[in-house]
Amino acid sequence: MTVRRGRRDTGQAFPLYIVAVGGLLFLALAFFAVGQAAATRNGAQTAADAAALAAGQKYRDLLGKGFLDAIRDGDDTGDGGGTSWEDLLNGRGMPSEAACDNAEWFAGRNDASVTACTPDSWPTSFAVTIRTRNTVGDSVIPGTENKHASAEAKAVVAPRCTLDPAPPDEGKGGGKHGTEGKRGKEGGSSKGGKDDEGGKGKGDKPAPIGITCDGKQWTLDPEDLHDLPDAADLFAVRLAH
């Protein structure tokens, strides 16, 4: 009788084992689905960070080139649009389309697409939103096969440099940054009267510009440009949290 009762108890417990194993299997698959979703979300954030930094770095390069072009040309503009080199040195004034295009390219390398790229003029920054091209995938949780991940990131382009004080004799000649032009005797005009109003004469030239970038000094002479700072010397690019 004892043997028969034990067999009957065993038979009654077997369905409970099946239910318990099935429940554990479902939980394992559910945890796996959660892990898939977390991995997709982390990948999206990585893509967003990379895209935002790519936009900021492209804009930094454009600023650096525009600033040095303005100094090299000896005028106040470096982008052809009337932006002064002082604005460029302060990190603003260049078109942002190329920066957002660069963000899109880097997002594509991370299997994502840029859904928004919003520049802000001051401090210059790029807020980028991306959407993954891949979905979470099939799982025991309904709908994950069509679920994409989205993420946002913001990169800031911060100036590293400040303009050094101008020498005491700067600006005596013609032009904003020129040196004093040669004038004829008694304040009259030199050859042909070309300097009657203190305009640029043959002796006029743009004065060197001094800047200090994170403690390092640079002297930029438009007539003798050498040992120039890189864009990375002029501007820092960082993620904003």
TrEMBL record:
The keyword Phosphoprotein does not apply. Pfam families: Tad (PF13400). InterPro entries: Tad_N (IPR028087). Keywords: Membrane, Transmembrane, Transmembrane helix. This is Putative Flp pilus-assembly TadG-like N-terminal domain-containing protein. It comes from Streptomyces piniterrae. The chain crosses the membrane at residues 14-34. Residues 138-216 are annotated as: Disordered. Signal peptide: none annotated. Residues 11-57 form the Putative Flp pilus-assembly TadG-like N-terminal domain. The keyword Transmembrane helix applies. The lineage of its organism: Bacteria, Bacillati, Actinomycetota, Actinomycetes, Kitasatosporales. Residues 169-205 have a biased composition (Basic and acidic residues).
